[in-house]
Task: structure prediction
Amino acid sequence: MDRTEALESIRENVENENLIKHMLATEAIMIALAKRFGEDEAEWGLAGLLHDIDVELTGGDMTTHSKLGADLARDLGAGEAIANAILCHNETHGITPKTNLEKALYCADPLTGLITAAVLVRPDKKLASLEAKSVRKRFKEKSFAAGASREQIAKCSEIGLELDEFIVIGVEAMQGIAQDLGL
Ligand SMILES: [Fe+2]
Result:
């Protein structure tokens, strides 16, 4: 499976454009993390791109979310490493992320939400002018974008990243696809 096929499948299974943008943002951060650690960029990117492909199909049911996604990824021809990363990004299943790919997806997922929220409160609503330090400030405001789990984002420590660097990587990765994100 290549990226084009993954995107086609996403288009077939997801209507919400914001959800698609979230998956694109996660993909961008996963590719940046793979670069940072010398990992497989295509593999890590696909895990990010596909991770929420089942959200609409499962209707928000967290007991099936990501199980179906992992199956869909397998059906598309993604390897077990990707399927497992998708499976355990939803902690409802109680499967602790173990590989670096699994851990990276687990902490990258909520970072996209925090960064997007930090952009949307800016006057120009543009990623280009967003500084990592303002995201860092927002990180400490517990009520700001409360859905973006700080605990989960902070798990970047498990892949050997300080929070500050993780946020810089996330902001730069999303700035790189700002046009696709409409931000
Ligand atoms: Fe997600």
Notes: The chain has a mean pLDDT of 97. The longest helix spans residues 17-37. Residues 22, 26, 51-52, 109 surround fe (ii) ion (CB under 6 Å).
